[in-house]
């Protein structure tokens, strides 16, 4: 029988011990142990194992670039929008890195709770950022969803909403899906959706460097945000384990 976390009740943590050679439960890059939380290891260390430092470098550089550009110019009503959204993306990245390497039932339970907490904070920041940009657009009679940044931003908000609904119901209300076993089947799609959402979020920030506000006011260099975004995607993507997505590596 499976629990709401998608882990069989008879799960043996010894099954998660590192194996030699390639396997379907290994990350895309590196050995299996490079992206697996060891028994007894504090969960915060998940933020640094494997290729996590690459993702950390990318997201902190990206955040620093945006925050530095905003605070080096006079603050206006619009200013909190990029500040809130980049902070939300920073939290989303941390929540992903925390949960990724978990593989035993206790690890997954704690990882899921922290993942949910960080994602809740991130969602609240995104909602505040959305409110600010909408008020700003209405006050200036601006157009909506025309630029690539705006279109990606809309997609990002929609994906976040879907991820929140699926994540909450799958874990805490599995009866919505007809029981724990079916909810477990939804879990892998939620995980895939999380990676897609994070990628779209990074793309949204990168696309912001082509907006009129950045080109005419902030002057953030395209190459800087692109490089930082690539580091985030590579660092997180390299730790993906195909077995957790329901796929097998040949």
Automatic annotation (TrEMBL):
Its cofactor is heme b. The chain crosses the membrane at residues 47-70, 112-133, 145-172, 192-211, 223-242. It comes from the Eukaryota. InterPro entries: CYB561D1/2 (IPR045150), Cyt_b561/ferric_Rdtase_TM (IPR006593). It holds the Pfam family Cytochrom_B561. GO terms for molecular function: metal ion binding; transmembrane monodehydroascorbate reductase activity. This is Cytochrome b561 domain-containing protein. It comes from Aaosphaeria arxii CBS 175.79.
């Amino acid at each position: 029988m499976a629990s709401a976390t998608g882990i069989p009740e008879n799960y043996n943590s010894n099954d998660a011990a590192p194996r030699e050679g390639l396997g379907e439960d290994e990350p895309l890059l590196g050995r299996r142990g490079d992206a697996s939380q060891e028994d007894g290891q504090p969960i915060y260390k998940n933020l640094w194992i494997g290729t996590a430092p690459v993702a950390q470098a990318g997201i902190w550089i990206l955040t620093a670039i945006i925050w530095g550009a905003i605070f080096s110019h006079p603050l206006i009503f619009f200013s909190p929008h990029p500040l809130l959204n980049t902070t939300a993306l920073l939290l989303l990245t941390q929540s992903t890195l925390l949960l990724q390497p978990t593989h035993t039932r206790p690890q997954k339970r704690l990882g899921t709770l922290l993942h949910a907490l960080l994602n809740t904070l991130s969602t609240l920041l995104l909602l505040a950022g959305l409110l600010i940009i909408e008020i700003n657009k209405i006050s200036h009679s601006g157009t909506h969803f025309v630029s690539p940044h705006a279109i990606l931003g809309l997609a990002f908000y929609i994906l976040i909403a879907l991820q929140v609904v699926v994540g909450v119901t799958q874990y805490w209300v599995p009866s919505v899906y007809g029981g724990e076993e079916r909810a477990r089947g939804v879990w892998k799609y939620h995980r895939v959706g999380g990676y897609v959402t994070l990628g779209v979020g990074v793309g949204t920030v990168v696309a912001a460097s082509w907006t009129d506000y950045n080109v005419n006011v902030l002057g953030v260099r395209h190459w800087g945000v692109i490089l930082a975004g690539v580091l985030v995607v590579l660092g997180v993507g390299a730790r993906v384990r195909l077995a957790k997505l329901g796929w097998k590596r040949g």
